[in-house]
Amino acid sequence: MAIDGTFDPRFAGVRDEFERNFAERGEVGASVCVTVDGETVVDLWGGTADPTTGRVWDRDTLGHVWSATKGATALCAHILAARGQLDLDAPVVTYWPEFGKNGKESVLVRHLLSHQAGLPAVRAPLPAGCFYDWQLMADALAAEEPFWRPGTRNGYHALTFGFLVGEVVRRVSGRSLGTFFADEVAGPLGLEFWLGLPAEHEPRVAPTVPAAPAGPGDAVPSFYVAALSDPASVPGLVLANNGGYMLVPGESDSRAAHAAEMGAIGGITQARGLAGMYRPLALGGTVDGVTLVGPAQLYRMGAVVAATSVDAVLLVPTRWSMGYTKTIDNSHLPVADREGLLLTETAFGHPGMGGSLGFADPGLRLSFGYTMNRQGTGLGVNERGQSLVDAVYQALGCRRVDDAGHWYH
């Protein structure tokens, strides 16, 4: 498999693991990018973008990064907070009055960011294409009753996070989430990263290659077991009540899906875009004359505010800062639930379904992005992405206490 791009010789191990992903771990098409001290030290891509046509994955190929999108949406909220326009400790109704229904009057903005709002799904059946209608989803969530008392526990808001946080961004800024991100992040930083992809870039997108269906005896993550066993459960509603987005084959690759502004799952970019978004956050909040946040806000972005041994939705341990995933070691769980994210404690970022990942590690002045088209079967970062992360940390002289432990520097 031909690998293209560049890498600093210090990071040859990343290139080796990237090649091994294709040779040994079933990679189809992918890109990986790493910056240190603001300089790009790895920018690699390779494989097949579209197996049905044989189109190669080249430098300009874009991919759907699924929940890695949440990092972009959270950043928009933190930018407004850093400017004094949004108080993360204020009730949501301060900015979105219609939200204060059915026991949500006391929900705080930070509860939305840390998956503590109790709104991971909607109970009433949603119509086909609902995720492409922002107002419909905002109204549905404003009317919804929380599934638990807000602030008392956390459960991953896998599909609703973008509408919840994004509507606050819209109310405060007067701009849609995708427009705000383009104006304040992607444009100033020169990133090819969209929440709502323009039609002219559609031919560059690599379609998703779904994970192989589980066979007899294959381990299945607890989330899917619960969702398929009880459609009325929270996992069941998350998986099935989304207007067909998650269950209709090919729907997430449709032009309508790519064009929609979906701040939880809809981002289109490549590894360069993910690493580029986190690049200023690895350097104190400013890069190349562009300031996104200051040190105080950056601290809040990386500080753990919610952790649980049983996430109310994913049914595995999770750890969150306000809007971002923190390092979490789930290697002690049954094999289907072991996918976590092993970083240093100073790092924060977000994975996407199937394995994509972007993060910043301010302690090492490091940013990282990885995108791919073939999804893994689990809910976290699988061995393809983690092998690249491990190689980056090894190149920087970091260590792990044991084979399954967190990274230290």
TrEMBL record:
Q: Does the keyword Hydrolase apply?
A: yes
**Molecular function as annotated in GO:** hydrolase activity
- Domain of life the protein comes from: Bacteria
Keywords assigned by UniProt?
Hydrolase
Q: Which residues form the Beta-lactamase-related domain?
A: 18-378
Stored InterPro entries: Beta-lactam-related (IPR001466), Beta-lactam/transpept-like (IPR012338), Beta-lactamase/esterase (IPR052907)
The protein, known as: Serine hydrolase
Which species is listed as the source? Virgisporangium aurantiacum
Q: What is the lineage of its organism?
A: Bacteria, Bacillati, Actinomycetota, Actinomycetes, Micromonosporales
